[in-house]
Amino acid sequence: MDAPNHNALGLYFSIPFCRAKCTYCNFASGVYPASEHDRYVARLIRDLTAVPAWAQTMQVHLPRQVDTIYFGGGTPVLLAPHLFTELFAAIRSHFQLTPDAEITIECAPGQLPDDTLDAMVAAGVNRVSLGVQSFVDHEATLSGRYHTRDIVLEDLRRLRAAGIPNLNIDLLAGLADQTFASWRESLAVLCETGVPHASVYMLEIDEDSRLGRELLDGGTRYSAGLVPNDDTIAQMYEEAVTSLTASGLQQYEISNFAHSGMESRHNLRYWQRRPYLGLGLDASSMLHAADQTVLRATTSDDLSEFLTTAETAHETSWLAPTQQLEEAWFLGLRRNAGVHIRDLITEFGPDAVAPSIAVAHRLAVDGLLSTAKNIVRLTDRGRLISNDVFAEFLGLAPAHHAAQSR
Ligand code: SF4
User: Fold this and answer.
1) Cα 187 from Cα 218, distance rounded (Å)
2) 22 close to ligand 1 (CB < 6 Angstrom)
3) CA within 20 to 30 Å of 55's CA: 223, 259, 308, 357, which one?
């Protein structure tokens, strides 16, 4: 992989429209009429135009050069082809795309019309992420998905024929009626497809999805009674690491696996703390200010509020260097490449880093981290309880250095 360019920007576009709501989904997405799509894209284009003035007001650096773009959601491919064309024209008029920019779009299998695919390719999309979740048709149906295994395989064929070999498949461990055997089947089919990238997630049980709420309430709707238990889900994850690795998809982050050189450059920027600008509903940005602070900004997750306010509002927070150090730990540890102590000392200074190094050594004794050659990495056991490990790196700074606002 080439060294990351810290002077280029990543753009994220949230497209919150779906054909139906999946039972497990906890994203800010929903089913809306196509007329809303037009209004939404018009709003995105207006926001793109307004962004330089907003960055100036916030006194943050907004690189003009863009080296990754990611359309997530939602189901971005539901947008009509002309909307992609208009959006890309606006992007190109406000930003300068590097010749090798990685441009990814998320796609729900079976929901990619030919004219949309043509418009995407013409616009420069060169990577597609397919939300498959399961190759077992019955599990996909129970989750509210419309696709079958054959539909996914046909989409892969069409995408490759259209000149997009850079493909990702998402799988989800913890679906209703999923068994260890059916999970292995999904993994085997994924490996057979030969895609160069895979993402494996474990079901999140929270109030934000229908299935999550049902599980928390102890109910049985959405086949909640058929969801595998936590231990089985953890074993499924471990099985994924083993079988994907054996097929040449090397793990490079807790949930991500790729052939060498095919890692998602856009997602890497989040863990490498490189700048990004999020546009649309419930979108996050991270931009650097001249005074060493970092701005984190998030937009509303309410579509009607987003569409009707005169200017897009941002919830903002400023990270002082001590908080950036915490992020350097818990974002860096997500990657198998780990956190290099030397890099932290260079960026934050030895005194600031010392308390967290002591924590890393303590967690290494507990078998949750390794510290060989001054590179700190999660062990296999640490990866299974990574959130607990990350929490150990929070709040180490003296109180007067912590949260700052401007
Ligand atoms: S999981 Fe994806 S396709 Fe399903 S409702 Fe959520 S955003 Fe839409």
Assistant:
1) 29
2) yes
3) 308
Which two three-digit tokens encode residue 8? 């280029």
Choice between 396 and 189, residue whose per-residue pLDDT is larger: 189
Angle at which helices 149-161 and 114-123 pack, to 10 degrees? 40
Nearest to 91 by CA among 5, 12, 162, 15: 12
Ligand 1 pocket mutation, candidates 22, 77, 147, 204, criterion most atoms within 8 A of CB: 22
Task: Name the closest-CA residue to atom 1, ligand 1.
Answer: 25
CA of 56 to the centre of ligand 1 (A): 35
Q: pLDDT value at position 402?
A: 39
Average pLDDT, the chain: 93
Domains observed in the chain? 9-270 (3.20.20.70), 321-406 (1.10.10.920)
Dump pLDDT digits (tens) for 147-159: 999 999 999 999 9
Q: Tell me the average pLDDT across 98-114.
A: 97
Range in 33-37, 172-176, 235-239, 402-406 with the lowest mean pLDDT: 402-406
**pLDDT at residue 397 in the model:** 63
Q: Can you tell me which atom of ligand 1 is nearest the CA of 73?
A: 7
Strands 9-15 and 276-280: parallel
